[in-house]
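Subgroup meeting minutes
Present: P.N., E.W., G.H.
Scribe: E.W.

1. P.N. recapped why we're keeping a running log of single-chain structure predictions: easier to compare across weeks, and new members can see raw inputs and outputs side by side.
2. G.H. added today's entry (795 aa).
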Amino acid sequence: MKKSPWIRWFEEVGIDDVPVVGGKNASLGEMTRALAPKGIRVPQGFATTADAYRHFITENGLDAKIRALLERRSRGEATLEETGSAIRELIVHAPLPDDLAGAIREGYRELGQRYHRRLVDVAVRSSATAEDLAQASFAGQQETYLNVRGEDDLLLACRKCYASLFTDRAIVYREEQGFDHMEVALSIGVQKMVRSDKAGSGVLFTLDTETGFRDVVLINAAWGLGENVVKGAVDPDQYMVFKPLLGKNGYRPIIQKRPGEKAVKMIYAGKGHTVNVPTPERQRIRFVLSDDEILELARWAVLIEEHYGKPMDVEWAKDGETGALFIVQARPETVQSQRKPGALKVYRLRQKGKRLLTGLSIGSAIATGKVVKVLSVDELDRVEPGSILVTEMTDPDWVPAMKKVAGIVTDHGGRTCHAAIVSRELGIPAVVGTGIATEVLRDGQEVTLSCAEGEEGYVYDGLLDYEVREIDPEKLPQTRTKIMLNLAEPDAALKWWVLRADGIGLARMEFIITNHIKIHPMALLRFDRVADEEARKQILRLTRGYRDKSAYFVERLARGIAKIAASQYPNRVIVRMSDFKTNEYANLIGGRAFEPVEENPMIGWRGASRYYSDEYKDGFALECRAIRKARDEMGLTNISVMIPFCRTPWEAERVLAVMKENGLERGKDGLEVYLMCEIPSNVVLAEEFARHVDGFSIGSNDLTQLTLGIDRDSDRLAYLFDERNEAVKRLIADVIRRAHVVGRPVGICGQAPSDYPDFAAFLVEAGIDSMSLNPDSFVTTKTRVAEMEKQLEKA
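Output recorded in log:
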């Protein structure tokens, strides 16, 4: 084929040719030249040049006409819609110059020869010469035409692409970005169509789009053509792969697999047309991609990111006829990669206001908004983004609504209640335990919620002015004491990577079970014993697509744990095995068939005593399988485990034996086992317990409860419940001393060092090895610990 000035084949262009073929086509050319040799499949094709567009405009005398229409709008004589429509009409009805049309026809014929077809179906994509820059993405401003077949239809699609340079959204976007309309030209990419209508497609990013965490590949997938995923018209599957372990030692580090509804899929509907149709039920319940395909895309994503040297936004498609995956587009990611990394926010009220309520402050932020008062789970659909949720208390069913709001206010609850724990991890402020919030506040009332004034949180009338200051964690002082995090919610874990913590001292397994599994493990293993018809329906619905119901529990728990562990890799992440009380287990779907009714579940059948019992050890085996999957299959060997509520050394020995039976052997492959020190016997017999474990983690809430004989959930006795009580402090100091004598480290994962500066100082003096804190108190406590350590050095 004779070389034409109007087209370039993808293998003839590279990333430096943006002025010639636009960002999209330059990137396709770059991948074809540089990455296809490394195994990345890119459909073949060619691009028209920017000069071809200018040739088209000049030959048809459109320049002056377009300028005149744009000037009419600037004078207020025409609307945006009128202007855009008029320009597009001009372009679509203007003929392509013969030499340009001939070059496109000839290119189409050669593409058919390359694929051994007379009529090859192609995607016709717009590629503006100023698009896909690192500082501004033009993606989605112009049009793409799919399933185009035949030379005449191709030429029509090309004119439509030229016209799409003046869509209403493109006109506005260029004006906002400061681009001259007439300086931007358009290249057209003509690319072999991947038959994803018969399979699936989607997008991937080489970082987490919510948090900016750089060590993951995030993949979205839906059935059919990719436009639905790109435009957000469908709820896709979501997969996440941990990059540092990808390709190492045979690991398969897929740390998240979340099924989407995938309610519709886009397919071909005749020549050049597409249509959305309902997705068949058999496809809706299936994942679009297999694990092997997820990992292949992730490996490609890493190669693409390494080649371009920056986070990337990539479109992929699977050919339903061949089963092969393809990359069909790649551009720089322009949101998270542009944000300043590592900044933390500190809040301060600038105005005084009428104080309406007082409670415990959770978090350190300030939020303003309109009250939405919700008294039951049935009313959660009333919760709007950015509102202030006011309720009596929350439970796991409320989490989706809690993720929407700017702040939370409750009547009941303390620092360890559900609303407090979830709000901390979501990074939203909450004022809990006000007693009368649902009586005092009214729907639609404008309020300010402040958790930036110390231990007490306040709700003020009206929208008060406040300031937000950023702190760079890189500038935080170094400490001898390891400062770690308490986490439970996998979806929130990646948010806190910027803190540069020393690991996670407490990852709460039960929160993953409650929020991401929801079913009692024994109800999955003994489904025939579940008599409750509604529970049976829920279990069948949640586990659809799983041949083995127990695999649903293991896979979801493993990936939840792995996502938390990945957020701090390679630092140690200590996962506490399930620590539900019997009443909490009973509230899981199907749980009532397997749980006794206890008068005082807080000191009943919980923790270690369950793991070796005939009534639960098969459920504990599923927990062990999940840990093994996260460590052995995904490669997250930074995971350690912790045994809660272990009353005697004999129990510790029994639990270790059961763990070994289930493939978790202390010391094997570096597995460490820790003990929650939360019962006075753990302190008195510290040396005996130390023979069975690698370290201790003090649970100050339960240790206080059992030392002072106070139910920590009792409102009446709350005034007596204080971790700073001298009896509790003496036990803590004693276990630190005893453990150190036998060479075992001691940490603390309770709330006390976060809440009380004097308690943190006491722990430093006592020689604590680590403190595990809620993320909202990390900065202030780390700073306080550094100061205390300096004082001790001087003393």
